[in-house]
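Can you give me the bound-state structure? Components:
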Amino acid sequence: DAGVIQSPRHEVTEMGQEVTLRCKPISGHNSLFWYRQTMMRGLELLIYFNNNVPIDDSGMPEDRFSAKMPNASFSTLKIQPSEPRDSAVYFCASSPSGGSYEQYFGPGTRLTVT
Amino acid sequence: GENVEQHPSTLSVQEGDSAVIKCTYSDSASNYFPWYKQELGKRPQLIIDIRSNVGEKKDQRIAVTLNKTAKHFSLHITETQPEDSAVYFCAATSGGGADGLTFGKGTHLIIQP
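Here's the bound-state model for the whole set.
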């Protein structure tokens, strides 16, 4: 299994631009999570999906952030417009169902907004 | 919502000694407590976890203990080695694998040769 796949691995953009981060969960996993990591705030849950349905987006910082999961093998996190304070590492993680609790993290996308 | 406190923020131990990292949580409904290890520039990787129906779990040099009454859990690493140097995060959730994790702020473990 290739594990959770994220793209791009690095993104540098200017303030005001739209940014789209992509994630492919592990095949067969029914839950998908987006986390953000910064030095100041640590690892924070942004939003998660169960069976492609958004369950809790209370961690999404502002309306500038949106996430979708159109099918079981793909999710996007979009920031529009981006701001310098959005600079962080964004991780996607997935988890299987059926009583297995482990969450497996992707390699992350390092976003820098200048 | 859940709040997870983690201590210490930095821990330096001599190689071969033991290391203990402690976490407390606020939500009595939490039932799953994983520990992640993150090396510089890498993703968090699950090293051990415990569910609320178990008080202790061990995997070679790593063990985790859970006290539901006091709402705290701890990571124990024995016979520390240089490759144990990393940042360790505890986390908690009330929904098992179907809910998001609330993480502690992390402990930077430094193994002194």
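A couple of observations. The CA atoms of residues 29 and 96 of chain A lie 4 Å apart. Chain A is about 0% helix and 55% strand.
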